[in-house]
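User: I'm curious whether this sequence folds into something compact or stays loose and floppy. Could you predict its structure so I can see for myself?
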Amino acid sequence: MWVKGHADADSLSDAHTEPYPTVLAKALKSRELPNNTGSVHVEMRALYDFWSHFLIRNFNPKMYADFRKYAYEDAANNFPEGTKSLVDYYNQTLTVGKKVIPDAIAEDYVQLVRDEQVTATKPEDRLAFKALRAAWRNGALDIKSRKKIDSLIDPELKKELES
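Assistant: Here's the prediction. I'll summarize afterward.
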Protein backbone atom coordinates (compact mmCIF):
# COMPACT_ATOMS: atom_id res chain seq x y z
CA MET A 1 0.00 0.00 0.00
CA TRP A 2 1.22 3.51 -0.78
CA VAL A 3 0.32 6.41 1.42
CA LYS A 4 2.40 9.49 0.88
CA GLY A 5 3.97 10.78 4.05
CA HIS A 6 3.04 7.73 6.12
CA ALA A 7 5.75 5.19 6.90
CA ASP A 8 3.44 2.94 8.93
CA ALA A 9 0.32 2.02 6.97
CA ASP A 10 -1.04 0.05 9.96
CA SER A 11 -1.53 3.25 11.94
CA LEU A 12 -3.80 4.82 9.32
CA SER A 13 -7.53 5.15 9.79
CA ASP A 14 -9.93 3.42 7.42
CA ALA A 15 -10.53 6.76 5.71
CA HIS A 16 -6.96 6.68 4.41
CA THR A 17 -7.04 3.08 3.22
CA GLU A 18 -9.93 3.10 0.78
CA PRO A 19 -9.69 0.82 -2.24
CA TYR A 20 -8.36 2.41 -5.41
CA PRO A 21 -11.72 2.30 -7.28
CA THR A 22 -13.34 4.22 -4.42
CA VAL A 23 -10.60 6.84 -4.36
CA LEU A 24 -10.79 7.20 -8.15
CA ALA A 25 -14.58 7.58 -8.07
CA LYS A 26 -14.38 10.27 -5.36
CA ALA A 27 -11.67 12.18 -7.24
CA LEU A 28 -13.60 12.05 -10.50
CA LYS A 29 -16.77 13.19 -8.72
CA SER A 30 -14.83 16.14 -7.27
CA ARG A 31 -13.89 17.18 -10.81
CA GLU A 32 -17.59 17.78 -11.53
CA LEU A 33 -17.87 20.38 -8.75
CA PRO A 34 -17.41 24.08 -9.51
CA ASN A 35 -13.84 25.14 -9.01
CA ASN A 36 -12.62 28.72 -9.08
CA THR A 37 -9.49 28.12 -7.01
CA GLY A 38 -7.06 27.79 -9.90
CA SER A 39 -6.12 24.36 -8.58
CA VAL A 40 -7.62 20.88 -8.82
CA HIS A 41 -9.68 19.65 -5.90
CA VAL A 42 -7.82 17.98 -3.03
CA GLU A 43 -9.05 14.50 -4.00
CA MET A 44 -7.65 14.84 -7.51
CA ARG A 45 -4.34 16.21 -6.26
CA ALA A 46 -4.02 13.21 -3.92
CA LEU A 47 -4.76 10.88 -6.82
CA TYR A 48 -2.07 12.52 -8.96
CA ASP A 49 0.40 12.13 -6.11
CA PHE A 50 -0.60 8.49 -5.73
CA TRP A 51 -0.20 7.72 -9.43
CA SER A 52 3.17 9.46 -9.72
CA HIS A 53 4.60 7.38 -6.87
CA PHE A 54 2.75 4.08 -7.08
CA LEU A 55 3.23 3.47 -10.81
CA ILE A 56 7.02 3.61 -10.51
CA ARG A 57 7.14 0.30 -8.64
CA ASN A 58 3.76 -1.16 -9.53
CA PHE A 59 3.07 -0.28 -13.15
CA ASN A 60 -0.53 -0.81 -14.19
CA PRO A 61 -1.47 0.12 -17.78
CA LYS A 62 -5.06 1.09 -16.89
CA MET A 63 -3.96 3.35 -14.02
CA TYR A 64 -1.30 4.90 -16.23
CA ALA A 65 -3.86 5.55 -18.99
CA ASP A 66 -6.17 7.19 -16.45
CA PHE A 67 -3.29 9.26 -15.10
CA ARG A 68 -2.41 10.62 -18.54
CA LYS A 69 -6.02 11.15 -19.58
CA TYR A 70 -7.00 13.19 -16.54
CA ALA A 71 -3.72 15.10 -16.42
CA TYR A 72 -4.21 16.24 -20.00
CA GLU A 73 -7.88 17.05 -19.41
CA ASP A 74 -7.06 19.10 -16.33
CA ALA A 75 -4.24 20.89 -18.14
CA ALA A 76 -6.68 21.84 -20.90
CA ASN A 77 -8.81 23.43 -18.16
CA ASN A 78 -5.83 25.37 -16.73
CA PHE A 79 -5.18 23.00 -13.83
CA PRO A 80 -1.50 22.01 -14.25
CA GLU A 81 -1.14 19.73 -11.19
CA GLY A 82 -1.74 16.57 -13.21
CA THR A 83 0.91 17.29 -15.81
CA LYS A 84 3.35 18.30 -13.07
CA SER A 85 2.78 14.92 -11.43
CA LEU A 86 3.11 13.23 -14.82
CA VAL A 87 6.48 14.93 -15.36
CA ASP A 88 7.56 13.77 -11.90
CA TYR A 89 6.52 10.25 -12.83
CA TYR A 90 8.44 10.33 -16.13
CA ASN A 91 11.50 11.77 -14.43
CA GLN A 92 11.46 9.06 -11.77
CA THR A 93 10.92 6.40 -14.43
CA LEU A 94 14.07 7.62 -16.16
CA THR A 95 16.26 8.04 -13.11
CA VAL A 96 15.15 5.76 -10.27
CA GLY A 97 16.84 2.38 -10.11
CA LYS A 98 18.61 2.74 -13.44
CA LYS A 99 15.97 0.62 -15.19
CA VAL A 100 15.35 0.92 -18.91
CA ILE A 101 12.34 3.08 -19.61
CA PRO A 102 9.53 1.12 -21.32
CA ASP A 103 8.92 2.03 -24.97
CA ALA A 104 5.40 3.39 -24.46
CA ILE A 105 6.48 5.55 -21.51
CA ALA A 106 9.45 6.94 -23.46
CA GLU A 107 7.18 7.76 -26.41
CA ASP A 108 4.64 9.48 -24.15
CA TYR A 109 7.36 11.46 -22.38
CA VAL A 110 8.90 12.68 -25.63
CA GLN A 111 5.43 13.56 -26.92
CA LEU A 112 4.80 15.68 -23.81
CA VAL A 113 8.12 17.46 -24.40
CA ARG A 114 7.10 18.12 -28.02
CA ASP A 115 3.66 19.33 -26.93
CA GLU A 116 5.34 21.80 -24.59
CA GLN A 117 7.40 23.17 -27.47
CA VAL A 118 4.13 24.17 -29.11
CA THR A 119 1.96 25.14 -26.16
CA ALA A 120 4.31 26.71 -23.60
CA THR A 121 4.29 30.48 -23.68
CA LYS A 122 7.27 30.85 -21.32
CA PRO A 123 10.41 28.72 -20.96
CA GLU A 124 9.56 28.00 -17.31
CA ASP A 125 6.34 26.31 -18.48
CA ARG A 126 8.35 23.54 -20.16
CA LEU A 127 8.54 21.26 -17.12
CA ALA A 128 8.87 18.01 -19.07
CA PHE A 129 11.68 19.45 -21.16
CA LYS A 130 13.53 20.73 -18.08
CA ALA A 131 13.31 17.34 -16.36
CA LEU A 132 14.43 15.46 -19.47
CA ARG A 133 17.25 17.91 -20.06
CA ALA A 134 18.49 17.56 -16.49
CA ALA A 135 18.50 13.75 -16.73
CA TRP A 136 20.10 13.93 -20.20
CA ARG A 137 22.91 16.20 -19.05
CA ASN A 138 23.70 14.88 -15.57
CA GLY A 139 24.30 11.24 -16.43
CA ALA A 140 21.22 9.98 -14.55
CA LEU A 141 19.97 8.08 -17.59
CA ASP A 142 20.65 4.41 -18.11
CA ILE A 143 22.51 4.08 -21.44
CA LYS A 144 19.70 2.02 -22.98
CA SER A 145 17.09 4.59 -21.90
CA ARG A 146 19.24 7.35 -23.36
CA LYS A 147 19.46 5.52 -26.69
CA LYS A 148 15.71 4.93 -26.66
CA ILE A 149 14.97 8.62 -26.03
CA ASP A 150 17.59 9.61 -28.61
CA SER A 151 15.82 7.49 -31.24
CA LEU A 152 12.58 9.38 -30.57
CA ILE A 153 13.80 12.97 -30.73
CA ASP A 154 14.68 15.12 -33.71
CA PRO A 155 18.08 16.79 -34.14
CA GLU A 156 16.71 20.17 -33.06
CA LEU A 157 15.41 18.83 -29.76
CA LYS A 158 18.62 16.87 -29.20
CA LYS A 159 20.65 20.02 -29.68
CA GLU A 160 18.40 21.85 -27.22
CA LEU A 161 18.79 19.06 -24.65
CA GLU A 162 22.56 19.20 -24.94
CA SER A 163 22.91 22.99 -24.83
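Summary: The longest helix spans residues 103-119. The two ends are 41 Å apart (CA to CA).
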